[in-house]
Write a structure and sequence with these properties.
Blueprint (H helix, E strand, L loop, with lengths): L2 H4 L13 E4 L5 E6 L2 H6 L5 E5 L3 E6 L18 H9 L4 E2 L8 E7 L2 H11 L5 E9 L5 E5 L25 E12 L9 E10 L6 H8 L13 H10 L7 E9 L6 E6 L3 H9 L11
Parallel strand pairs: 2-12, 6-11
Antiparallel strand pairs: 1-2, 3-4, 4-6, 5-6, 7-10, 7-11, 8-9, 9-10, 11-12
Length: 290
């Protein structure tokens, strides 16, 4: 089976002049995305609602925010779920998660039934989850990483069990390279340093899957302290003023839990990740099509 048979990659988001809600062909395909440049610049670290109706909320999560309270990071007070509950005046139900250092699109249900319907899609091939990432080196132009992963141990008592004994779960990540750059700086052992901008599509949803898979193919993500390379992370922090994880959930497609309409939610990278993409000469554009 070819890569094109394994997954379908959609075009990339660009920054337009106004907030847009387009209706694609066929008519039931709807896309919603935040595109006002001044709004993106002034609220880079503030959550925003992309779409809201009586059944769900789609929002932008900045890096550094937790989706919900967690014992892993009990002192963090930037909690997206509580922020959006206060903003919308509605009780919200978590559907999926984005790691604290990851930014991008996330959805919540307004009822347990809506949340369950959305979660069922995200746990299957019924939805499309796409990310933007910057990795070290020139990764292949496209590919599918099919590499089972053991669970991530967050607590010390979970780490006592040998890794060889941990059950591995199927994990599949599709990707295509969008751009490359070579910088005249010796960060590692080579006189110049190469990086790639990649669009990633998750076929499964294991913990830290994208970061672990790109480490597996020797193209670790920039800004990741756990699975990345500290020398390249430090270079981006010092040279570009950007020490965040270069991973952004830029597009989510799924069916509305009640009407069944196929919906697309998208948001461009904000803050220093967006700045880095621009400084490296990579342009993002959104074109209609399937």
């Amino acid at each position: 089976m070819s890569n094109n048979d394994e997954f379908h990659i959609y075009p990339i988001l660009t920054v337009h002049d106004s907030v847009t809600a387009d209706v694609y062909s066929p008519a039931y395909f709807r896309t919603y995305f935040l595109t006002d440049q001044s709004e993106i610049e002034s609220h880079a670290m503030t959550p925003d609602v992309i779409f809201e109706d009586s059944h769900l909320v789609a929002a932008f999560k900045p890096e550094g925010w937790l989706v919900h309270r967690s014992d892993i990071d009990r002192h963090e007070d930037r909690i997206l779920l509580q922020y959006l509950r206060d903003l919308t005046g509605t009780r919200l139900y978590p559907v999926h998660r984005l790691d604290k250092p990851t930014s991008g699109v996330i959805v919540f249900g307004k009822s347990s039934e809506a949340a369950a319907g959305l979660q069922a899609q995200l746990d299957s091939d019924a939805s499309i989850k796409q990310y933007l990432a910057i990795c070290r080196g020139y990764c292949p132009e496209q590919g599918v990483i099919d590499h089972p992963l053991p669970p991530v141990a967050d607590f010390k008592h979970q780490r006592k069990r040998p890794k060889s004994e941990l059950p591995r779960q199927d994990a599949i990540t599709a990707f295509r390279r969008l751009g490359t750059v070579e910088l005249p700086y010796q960060v590692d052992r080579y006189p110049a340093s190469r990086y790639s901008l990649v669009e990633v599509q998750l076929k499964t949803g294991r913990r830290h899957q994208i970061r672990r898979h790109f480490k597996h193919i020797s193209h670790p993500l920039i800004g990741c302290p756990k699975y990345g390379k500290s020398t390249h992370n430090r270079f981006f922090a010092e040279h570009f003023g950007c020490g965040r994880l270069m991973l952004h959930a830029h597009r989510l497609q799924l069916a509305h839990p009640v009407s069944g309409d196929w919906m697309e939610f998208a948001a461009a990278p904000r803050g220093c990740m967006g700045d880095v993409i621009q400084q490296l000469g990579w342009s993002l554009s959104l074109e209609s099509g399937h």
